[in-house]
Task: structure prediction
Amino acid sequence: MMLRVIVTISRQKPELISDRVSSIISGELETVNQSDNELRVASLLAFRTFVASTPDLVKLRLKDMYAAAIEALQFDPSYNYDDDDDEDLDEEDEMDTGSEDGLDDEFDEDIYEDNEDVSWDIRLGGVKLLSAIAESELFTPEIIVRDIGTLLVKRFKEHEDVVRAEILFTYAKLLETLRQRLSLLQDPSGMDVDNGTSDLIKQQIPTAVSSLISSIKAYPKHTETKQLAFVILTRFVTLNIVAVDGILSKILPFVVSTLEISDTAGTSQAATTGIVKPNIKIDALDFLLEYSKFTDLSAEADTFLFAVKSKITDAASSSLAMVQASAYTVSSVIVKLLRVAADTSGKQVERYLSWVSEITDLAIKMVGSKDNALYATLYPLIGVSLQQFGDLLDGAVVENALLVLTEWSQGVEKMHASMNALLSAVTKPSHLPEKYVVGIASSLMGQASEKLQSSNINSQQPALALIRGLSEYNIKAVNALAHSIVTRIVEIIGATPESPPLMALRAFSGICAHVPINTIKEISPNLLESLSLATVYDKLSANAMNELYKTVGMLFPDVVQSWEAMLVGKWVASYVQFDSLRTSNAAEATQMQNPTNKLPVLAKGIIALRSGYCEKKGGSVSDRFISDIQGKPPKAVED
Result:
């Protein structure tokens, strides 16, 4: 009872017992391995709490507590493990996955249950103590992999479900801890400087995967074991994609069999962790998602993804919306991966085209879904498929896709989703043939122009983005509405001049190429009045602002001089106002935003304007011009 009180104090107010921690640990270490089960578990819990709460105070006895954790983890007097379980499986070995539901199996898991076994809670305490030690950063990453990782891998065969789940959970957390610590050990170029740890992880992955598969085969009815296996595989991807390539053939039957089970059989049975999903199919799809993000479509990856693509399609037809959504998300990443691999590495991906058409067509048919999470993944897939394979897909699929993406009468959220998908499809570089863009441009520009009239920024943003994308095409539909759209964009910028909307700045840079110089001269006073008030700090907005100035300088050289004069004049006027306030009322001047904060924004804008002008003329901005613009306030003002 006293030990439990001490543990509680250690968790909540460790400073109250800091001077006694060492003696408490020493006393418990003397008896931990000889105590009865209940006291032994209490001691292990106390060690775990001390390591987590007061790591600096336990350094001197850390090795002893580590030894106690190992001995506790291996304490299983009523069960004899078969050492052969540690051997790697041959690649030809097939997993015994049972029936479609994964429940009809000759293996009786009760054969491994020992109802008289009272040692499982000691092993559980040992695992949790190891987990605390691994997370404490008291051991180096190399020791964590070589010693703790190796020990946990050997214990994947644990026969008690709750202990096995904790072992797998601890190993998964260990991998995440390593990923975070190794990310801090990278040089500025992104190269891992801790090659020793990386090499150890690479060497451990094949053994760990073989041990995982052995555990899954031994306990086929335990869903959580399989779910945690997918979590571990996913984390391997982030640590060493090359090593994962080497084990794809071993895990392929596991992935396929998981995606083949019925939706109800895949429901999670997890009771001890929070890192698995509600359905094991989602865990499997999450692994495929992460792997597809990291791979460059190596030969092993090509074989693996081609083998599972049909199962992804099956998951997209699941009766569970969350499984469907995961399948469509994975598909979007794979579609993009395929085209990038073809364009950058010359990979042959033609054999995937029928699958891309099939999964896209399935998404098209599902857009009527009322499930928010599901349709939020359908539209991106359709847009990505058009963007990446619009030139190779069947014409009927392309036309049907564009038909559903231009239907904006199904509610605001779906309208935004479809507009974003269209933006993905038409924004260059895109593999969607221009003839399709021309065919829908008139309708899109009309609807986008209509949405711009709204005062709701949430309605304006996707319309502005779509206008920017369509502006990259020299088509009549864009030219016809360009004047009214430019005028409206200037009004939108003027509504919040201090922080003009990023997408409004970008849309203006695109659409102004479709208007005559008279339009630019007409809107210049209002636009420059707004831009002169802008104080932009984030990089994206600053880049968009400079892009606007440069575009105007390049396309309309005749207005450059007047724009420069107006911008400099605006700044001088603002500075004079501040200078006047400063001499008459310091407090009021302090509250007023110092116009010198706007100087860098205006200076960079003027330089960008002149840069566009010089680029058009075939020259460059002089150093003297830049120096003058970035210099101190005008001497006339200083005097």
